[in-house]
Design goal:
The longest helix is centred in the middle third of the chain and has 15 residues, at 380-394. A 13-stranded antiparallel sheet has the order 19-20-21-22-23-24-25-26-27-28-29-30-31, with helices on one face. Strands 1-2-3-4-5-6-7-8-9-10-11-12 form a twelve-stranded antiparallel beta barrel. Strand 25 (586-598) and strand 26 (606-621) form a beta hairpin. It is mainly beta and 740 residues long. It has helices at residues 22-33, 39-50, 343-352, 380-394, 420-428, 433-439, 531-536, 718-721; strands at residues 88-96, 99-109, 112-125, 134-147, 155-161, 171-180, 183-192, 236-244, 250-256, 282-289, 294-301, 305-315, 356-364, 367-374, 401-408, 411-419, 441-444, 453-456, 463-477, 480-496, 499-511, 540-552, 557-565, 570-579, 586-598, 606-621, 627-635, 641-650, 656-664, 676-684, 696-701.
């Protein structure tokens, strides 16, 4: 038996103000002039503008918020024990010859900072691999908070740089930071790249002789975690001071670093180390905060080298935009004695004002049931509150309850129950808000047809289409940043509630995949690494053309089958089965697909390669830091068998930030690196626009296009389609139902 869920009142935070819109306009101009900025930087431009409101910033204290040359909160070359606000994301570019660094850092939790970086070495090249292009090294960083600052004790943190990849700049550190009025002091100990000055031997030598010496990298193979180096070898001190000047935007920096630049890495083993002259361990710098999202920094490092950089940042957790949605329909003082006779007008209002695509309206005694799909508002309570007003004005006085049975692509997800009088009282008086919020409840929806008198059942809308731009990109490999910009036409045609044809055709506007020369050393079938041929052999391509059908097999069981041109590179057929109990943190799914590789021209022809691929996947809403964990085990496109672990966090803003890693049994056949990995961010579109929307855009970073661990790019996922089975933030969003 389902019982009501209790809810608690919450306080909504006001939107975050900004100092000015001038910087946003400047950034928009720069984005148009530099269309080939790294894709994450372009997203940061948009997010930083979206985060701005229309008020001036109060006086800000910028101490401890700086991004270092390596990315992550720090001074210049060295980290601090400070952390960015929860949900913060930053793109940083810095140049101090011979290095150009492109950094992306994230604050997924209050106690962990993570980031990845590309370091372009200007005086070293890939050589035969990619002509004479500058060598581009990839690295992954992490920093963990050990303790917060108190009145008498500093903040403490531990971290590691370049722990995954070639390890050319690998380093570990322990660091402390303490604030004193307008000064922020930092002192730390560094190993590896941060400890090359070797001020003293390892403090862990007493525990084991292995800590006295730091092993070198056996190869420059990307993809391994260099765990055998952690906290080993000699140690150097580093630290510095940040001073918040009386002029609020300006922060001055003084830094003492632990690197002597006499062990600079060289990616080409046939050449000597790339050592640089160093005249001083003291660096000086200044950082100017244009506003809360844009900072410029300059410095003088090594006693002989100028440094310059720029940081774009935005808080993913607080990303929002002022909305100009239609006002909710006013409540009539007295509801009608009997039902309205014009239910088509009610349906129109439900679509236009509440964002509900109505399947049916059914009267069940004193309950009015609306079956439909949400189309506009990410907050389900907001959609229901708007619908409550419309139904109250249309339903006879004998109706005491409004019930919403939510569907997704034809399958029932859940039912939300809204007592009519409790809602009316809450709209009239804030004193009744708590009683209203405790009166609503939700339960699992079944696929069985609702009994009762059908008041309205429109014919199902069959055809829709959308035109927009598309971006395909790869960043960080020997070929540099590769991109393709397309004009896309997407369309769908529904045969009935549970079945539909969908397709996407793309026309190539411009690309630079003619630069692609890097050829993977993998001995696996080329299931992904021929991407450049799919881009270049035809300007017009059919990216997707398939028929999909869903079904609800039981109260907690869902199924989906599909066939056709499933993605850019593969056609075939497959299916998915999912067990997802209502509002529980665990779900399980299985997909199985037979696919055949498509011709490079993007048409309907196929090549000789075909494979069976599929996975068993477990989903777990951990309840820890709002993290969703997904583990998939199965067979990949190249026939290799392995597992993918995906960890992601969704913030209150709707932004989801995640990372994944795949390891398979390909072994030496895998090619460069021993496993595949990537980072992604999914952003709701209404964070950028003044109209509410349930649509979202995703951006993924994957360092190399590999054949190992490659998965089929399925157009639909049952876990995503049934997302409303998990109540998530529903109870915290219930005040949205009462928005005036």
């Amino acid at each position: 038996m389902n019982t009501p869920h209790s809810v608690r009142a919450t306080t909504m935070s006001p939107p975050r103000p900004v100092r000015t819109r001038l910087a946003c306009a400047v950034r928009a101009i720069l984005a148009r002039r530099r269309p080939l900025l790294p894709p994450m930087a372009g997203v940061m431009l948009a997010m930083s503008c979206a985060a701005q409101a229309q008020q001036d910033l109060p006086k800000q204290d910028n101490l401890g918020s700086s991004q270092s040359d390596f990315g992550g909160v720090g001074l210049m070359q060295t980290p601090t024990a400070r952390f960015a606000p929860l949900g913060n994301a930053a793109f940083t570019y810095s140049r101090a010859s011979p290095y150009r660094r492109y950094n992306f850092s994230f604050q997924p939790t209050s106690w962990m900072e993570a980031g990845f970086r590309y370091t372009e070495i200007e005086n070293r090249s890939y050589g035969a691999v990619a002509r004479d292009r500058n060598y581009l090294d990839r690295g992954f960083d992490i920093k963990l908070k050990l303790s917060d600052e108190s009145r008498y004790w500093p903040a403490l943190a531990v971290g590691a740089r370049d722990i995954g990849g070639t390890g050319l700049f690998s380093a570990e550190y322990l660091v402390a930071s303490k604030r004193w009025y307008d000064f922020d002091f930092t002192l730390g100990m560094g190993w590896g790249y941060l400890g090359n000055s070797g001020d003293f031997s390892s403090p862990f030598g007493w525990a084991s002789d292995r800590f006295d010496n730091r092993p070198g990298r056996e190869s420059t193979s990307a993809g391994d975690f260099n765990l055998d180096q952690l906290f080993r070898g000699d140690v150097a001190l580093f630290g510095g001071i940040e001073y918040q000047t009386p002029w609020d935007p300006l922060v001055l920096q003084l830094e003492y670093e632990g690197n002597d630049y006499q062990n600079e890495p060289n990616p080409n083993s046939s050449l000597p180390n790339n050592n640089q002259p160093r005249d001083s361990r003291v660096n000086i710098g200044a950082r100017y905060h244009v506003n809360d999202n844009l900072a410029l920094n300059v410095g003088y490092q090594r006693g002989n080298t100028l440094m310059a950089g720029v940081t774009l940042s935005a808080n993913l957790g607080g990303l929002a935009q002022i909305k100009f949605d239609p006002e909710p329909v006013p409540l009539e003082d007295e509801p009608p004695v009997t039902h309205t006779e014009d239910w088509s007008e009610v349906r129109r209002q439900l679509a236009a004002n509440a964002g509900i695509k109505v399947y049916r309206v059914v009267e069940q005694g004193n309950t009015l049931l609306v079956e439909g799909e949400p189309t506009t508002y990410r907050s389900m309570p907001e959609a229901e509150g708007r619908a409550n007003r419309i139904l109250h004005n249309a339903a006879g006085r004998d109706i005491t309850t409004f019930r919403y049975r939510w569907y997704s692509e034809g399958v029932a997800i859940r039912e939300d129950v809204q007592p009519r009088q409790a809602f009316v009282d809450a709209v009239a008086s804030e004193d009744a808000n708590i009683d209203y919020r405790h009166s609503i409840y939700s339960l699992a929806a079944t696929g069985r047809p609702a009994k009762g008198e059908v008041l309205d059942e429109p014919s199902y809308p069959r055809f829709n289409y959308d035109i927009g731009p598309g971006l395909q990109q790869n960043v960080g490999g020997p070929d540099g940043y590769l991109y393709q910009v397309t004009a896309n036409l997407a369309a769908s045609y529904r045969t009935d509630r549970n079945g539909w044809f969908s397709g996407l055709v793309a026309y190539n506007l411009f690309d630079n995949y003619d630069r692609a020369e890097y050829s993977t050393s993998s001995r696996l079938p080329r299931v992904r690494s021929d991407i450049d041929r799919y881009v270049q052999e035809s300007d017009f391509s059919v990216r997707n053309l398939q028929y999909t059908r869903t079904a609800q097999l039981g109260d907690d069981w869902y199924a989906m089958a599909y066939g056709g041109l499933l993605e850019t590179m593969y056609s075939g057929a497959g299916g998915e089965l999912m067990y997802r109990p209502f509002n529980t943190p665990l779900a399980f799914g299985m997909d199985l697909n037979w696919v055949k590789q498509r011709d490079f021209d993007g048409g309907f022809g196929t090549r000789d390669y075909d494979v069976w691929t599929g996975h068993i996947t477990g989903y777990w809403e951990t309840g820890f830091e709002d993290v969703l964990a997904k583990l998939s085990v199965g067979r990949y496109l190249a026939g290799d068998v392995g597992a993918t672990l995906d960890l992601s966090r969704q913030f209150a803003s709707g932004v989801r930030l995640g990372a994944w890693a795949t390891r398979t049994d390909a072994g030496d056949d895998y090619g460069e690196g021993s496993f595949d990995k990537g980072i992604y961010v999914t952003i709701p579109l209404d964070a950028f626009f003044v109209k509410s929307s349930r649509n979202q855009v995703g951006l993924a970073w994957q360092p190399l296009i590999r054949d190992g661990g490659a998965r089929l790019g399925r157009a639909y996922s049952l876990y995503d389609l049934t997302s409303e089975r998990w109540m998530g933030n529903y109870w915290n969003q219930t005040p949205d139902a009462l928005k005036p």
